[in-house]
Task: structure prediction
Amino acid sequence: MVGNSRLETIVLGGGCFWCMEAVFKRVKGVKNVVPGYAGGHKPNPTYEEVCTGTTGHAEVVKIDFAPKVITLEQLLDIFFQAHDPTTPNRQGNDIGTQYRSIILYTSEDQIPIIEQAISKAQKMWQNPIVTEVKPLDTFWEAEEYHHNYFDKHPEKPYCQVVIKPKLEKLINSQVLNLQ
Result:
């Protein structure tokens, strides 16, 4: 439990929001993780609209965290290990602009931390990092059936083949600071 400490917010997109939500909701110091859409131009988009690639939105998670427990730098370290930030508009078999790597900051104070995290992460990747960085305009919460998808449907093929191995890799490499 985070307690009464001050929370900060960051919005991250690294492919399917089911994966990102499953990863970040297990991190100590993270108070809330909400799947949604951001970075585009269409007001109040639906999942089906975002999947067409015409809304400009990416699948993202809005993360509220306690910086006294976990720093933005630590969250970004997890982010850059939880997806491939060098492939534009794609994560594995998920292809389209909605799966792009994106960081949407909620405070100007986050910019230098994000820039440092990208420089640090670049050392882990051979190809250039293509993560889009911009201020959060509007976050549109995803439909309820997307919330806690992995926890509600661990038997589904996507969860078994994509999310579960990703979580196991991050846990085994001790990247995750688990709750």
